[in-house]
Amino acid sequence: xxxxxxxxxxxTSAPKRPAxxxxxxxxxxxxxxxxxxxxxxxxxxxxxxxxTRVSSKPVMDQxxxxxxxxxxxxxxxxxxxxxxxxxxxxxPDSGTSLDDSQHSPSNSADKGKSVEILPPEPERAASPxxxxxAIQSSPLRFYAVxxxxxxxxxxxxxxxxxEACNVTDREFSSFSSYGSKATTQGSGDNKxxxxxxxxxxxxxxxxxxxxxSLHDLQFHKHDPSAKKADEQLRTLVxxxxxxxxxxxxxxxxxxxxxxxxxxxxRLSKLYRTAYIVFDSATSMDQFENTWAVLCTGxxxxxCPASHSPDQRAxxxxxxxxxxxxxxxxxxxxxxxxxxxxxxxxxxxxxxxNSYNPKPYAYIHFSSAATKESAMGxxxxxxxxGLTWYEPAxxxxxxxxxxxxxxxxxxxxxxxxxxxPSRPWSSNDKLRELxxxxxxxxxxxxxxxRFARPANSEYRSYADAAGRKTSS
Length: 471
What we know:
Layout: H1 2-10, H2 46-51, H3 63-66, H4 74-77, E1 142-146, H5 161-172, E2 183-185, E3 192-197, H6 200-206, E4 220-222, H7 224-233, E5 235-241, H8 247-254, E6 260-268, E7 271-278, E8 292-295, E9 298-304, H9 309-314, E10 318-323, H10 335-340, E11 345-347, E12 360-365, H11 368-375, E13 379-381, E14 384-389, H12 428-437, H13 443-446, H14 461-470
Antiparallel strand pairs: 1-3, 1-4, 2-3, 5-7, 5-9, 6-7, 8-9, 10-12, 10-14, 11-12, 13-14
Organism: Rhizophagus irregularis (strain DAOM 197198w)
InterPro entries: Nucleotide-bd_a/b_plait_sf (IPR012677), RBD_domain_sf (IPR035979)
GO molecular function: nucleic acid binding
């Protein structure tokens, strides 16, 4: 009773806690809120613990406690403020923790799952019609070449191609329309020094007289497009080349048809494509009716580079499928059948995984009538019957045996062939007789365990060396 009277006398009173907020205990790190205006300090009692207030509002809202408060309704202050759903997402949220990243989404309920709406990309403006332009500009280049092989001992004065080109650049740099740098093309006696000008009068003036600094080397007019067209007339395109066929084998194969001056290749998925250049266009005449050439037993499809797209399409228009080939068959094995059915080419594709020949071949014909008559002829290879199909039916064939309706996982052709049994492999008495009477070169004696000396008769090198030194 004494304590209550003292508190009333001092004129201070602890704020009352709302009835709907039960006490939750002392807060660690906070002192007591009891007033210490009495003459003597009193120990903490249960009354002081009851006066401690635990607030669920943020710390930044505590400034309302320091201001003189007017009579307020506790039911309004205890409820959280309404959330403005129309607020800008960039506005800071008062309930965001200080540990949140500054790059975290402001909408905590969304958790960054909303799709960001980007502005539409601007449409690319259409280019103006060049045919209606008032000024039509098409810069031209005028080329000139010189053959160093026409000058005796020319390359004794220049150790490298670059040295000869540098002298050429210094000589022609006096012309304002001269190109950036001279280059060389070809090799050996066919090597050429190539330059170009952007003005025809400068080019004609530059090649009028021999170049004294190049030991009287004479330049002449040169038309690269005409040279390219001439080379195309002498070029043969070779496709379906297996990856293991070398360039030397290609040169040797096509040297039967003429002198090969150049051979370049490029990859084309599972095969390679070659461009064979002959020294004369007359070598291409024999490929007008020849569609394929055999190289190392494989069929290489050929076509002159000068053929039009329609001419090339004719060579792939009439195709039939000959399936159920024996394992390991190549195009050379079908040469007799191809001759009998008047086929123009035979192509056996390779497997993508093992790169082994597949059990079917694509047979190309020159016309639809030839194809129909060929598909009416029954064929067999190595005592195995073959069947004709349309190319669209290849997906229904087994990739192991080439027959329709066969499960590749249980295909009999996938099993390894059985080797013939050897009589000496399981009969010790026969091995002993073979060892005694057969010559040493016979396979039965080479694989006979009785033909080998016993383990006691083997002498190591260390044993032989030790006995030799002791003697």
